[in-house]
Design goal:
366 residues, alpha/beta, six-stranded mixed β-sheet, three-stranded antiparallel β-sheet, 12 helices, 13 strands, 46% helix
Length: 366
């Protein structure tokens, strides 16, 4: 499943702020209380609901880049042509469980920071504005960061609100968390569906009415934005199916256009891994003929451009399937077989065989 989005991305947080005011009757406490008083951001539903609003402004890219530099030192760290999803790297290590845990830990830093701050704000709010019946909620907004997918964020938050410190909850003042992202989506019944993930803190115990308030906010968010909302049972819906929306800029380098074109028409997807390797070998043979010195057959410029486009498509497909380049290691017999499938003339095949004898690797530039 792949969803594209074109044009300029509009900030999500201002829309969430309007939603709180218009759909929840929210009143900004910044406007009616002095700035020296610690409190929630909004009081809603006639005081029944206190909301602390936080945006995930840290993209996490620097933290992830630093981690990847560390992981590249591992002898089992896979090599891919071009880019590949992080999960592809994790799955191809000898210890995917611990590597995945390290990745999740880096992602969690950007999520737990706002949660810690919200816990302090809502604690102060409860002291300064006491009320017996009130839901204290953190609304967490992801502006436009790919790394904070709903599956990962919900996993982090679910475990965070269950953590104990000296037998006491670590975040006791946050009754529930609502996570909103429009950087991720899935298709359901032909419609684009955006996630609105709620995580309840066990501290609310048997106060079921607090869960009802959370459900009410979920429903109102969907109707206020899209005219529709559907409750999805976490046990019945695989939240990992929400995929990152691809941003398509108005202008892009040629190789990026090729990647976009392939994602729109992934024609290699129907091939088995063996068939894909054969296509890979054929591309590498033509690359050798086009770029090695003394080649008896060179492609015209338009042919070279087409070859580069095909290689870009191959890189994308191998990344999506989590196939490291080592799975398609160079093999002289496969080179000869690929040349035969391409119906190359005997002098051309003989030249390729001679190159193999001289240990020239296909794709090595002149």
């Amino acid at each position: 499943m792949r969803i594209e989005r074109t044009g300029k991305i509009k900030a999500l947080t201002p829309r969430v702020e309007r939603f709180i005011v218009e759909a929840l009757g929210g009143k900004s406490l910044d406007e009616i209380q002095s700035h020296g008083t610690r409190r929630a951001d909004y009081l809603c539903l006639r005081g029944l609901l206190a909301i602390e609003l936080k945006s995930l402004e840290d993209s996490g890219e620097e933290r992830m880049d630093n981690l990847v530099e560390e992981l590249r030192k591992r002898p089992d760290w896979p090599m891919f042509f071009g880019s590949a999803p992080m999960q592809a790297f994790i799955d191809n290590t000898d210890d995917p469980e611990n590597v995945g845990r390290a990745v999740a830990e880096r992602v969690s830093r950007g999520v737990l920071g706002p949660l810690r701050k919200a816990n302090k704000q809502l604690e102060a709010h409860a002291i300064n504005f006491p009320r017996r019946s009130q839901v204290r909620m953190l609304v967490l907004v992801n502006e436009d960061h790919e790394i904070y997918d709903p599956h990962t964020v919900s996993y982090i938050l679910w475990h965070a609100v269950r953590r104990l410190q000296e037998d006491q909850p670590l975040y006791p003042h946050v009754d529930a968390i609502l996570y909103i992202t429009e950087r991720h989506a899935m298709m359901a019944d032909g419609k684009v569906v955006f996630p609105c993930v709620s995580v309840e803190n066990p501290v609310i115990g048997d106060q079921e009415w607090k869960g009802d308030v959370v459900d009410l906010i979920n429903a109102r968010w969907g109707k206020w934005n899209f005219g529709d909302a559907r409750a999805m049972d976490a046990d019945a819906v695989d939240i990992s199916k929400f995929a990152t929306i691809d941003h398509i800029p108005d202008t892009a380098p040629r190789h990026e256009r090729w990647r976009t074109d392939y994602r729109r028409n992934p024609y290699l997807r129907r091939m088995t891994k063996a068939e894909l390797r054969e296509r890979f070998d054929e591309i590498m043979v033509m690359t050798s003929l086009s770029f090695l010195n003394g080649s008896p057959q060179r492609l015209p410029q338009e042919g070279v451009t087409l070859l580069m486009e095909q290689m870009t498509h191959m890189m994308v497909e191998m990344g999506e399937r989590a196939i490291p380049v080592t799975d398609f290691d160079h093999d002289p017999d496969r080179v000869v077989a690929a040349a035969a499938r391409l119906n190359l003339a005997k002098p051309v095949i003989d030249w390729l065989i001679e190159m193999e004898r001289d240990h020239v690797k296909p794709g090595e530039a002149a």
